[in-house]
């Protein structure tokens, strides 16, 4: 039992990670390491499902999602890449259209 000390949810259901959290994940592709922004989708026991935020780099839908143990050394908190000098592949840029209404009060 000591050899298989896995981080799991405790009886109260608390953990250090929650669905919806943003993280940074190291992913090796063609012998080159990339650091992606990922979103935690689901947690079950000691496993977490992660989705890569920038999907424009992959042609295969299966590469968007990854299942890793909670104590994986490939997943880090936001800001880790900048602190350690790695280039972070940021998520797709979102455009927000803000509609404004101006009223001429002096007519």
UniProtKB/TrEMBL annotation:
Biological process per Gene Ontology, one example term: regulation of DNA-templated transcription
A Gene Ontology cellular-component term: nucleus
InterPro entries the record matches: Mbt
Domain of life: Eukaryota
Sequence ranges of the MBT repeats: 1-91
Pfam families attached to this UniProt entry: MBT (PF02820)
Protein name: Uncharacterized protein
């Amino acid at each position: 039992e000591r050899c298989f000390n896995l981080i799991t949810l405790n009886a109260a259901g608390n953990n250090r990670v929650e669905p919806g959290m943003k993280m940074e994940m190291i992913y090796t592709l063609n012998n080159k390491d990339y650091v992606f922004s990922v979103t935690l989708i689901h947690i079950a026991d000691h496993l977490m499902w992660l989705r890569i935020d920038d999907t424009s780099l992959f042609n295969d839908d299966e590469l968007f999602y990854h299942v890793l143990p909670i104590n994986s050394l490939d997943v880090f908190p936001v800001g880790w890449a900048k602190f350690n000098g790695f280039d972070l592949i940021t998520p797709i840029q979102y455009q927000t259209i803000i509609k404004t209404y101006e009223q001429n009060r002096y007519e």
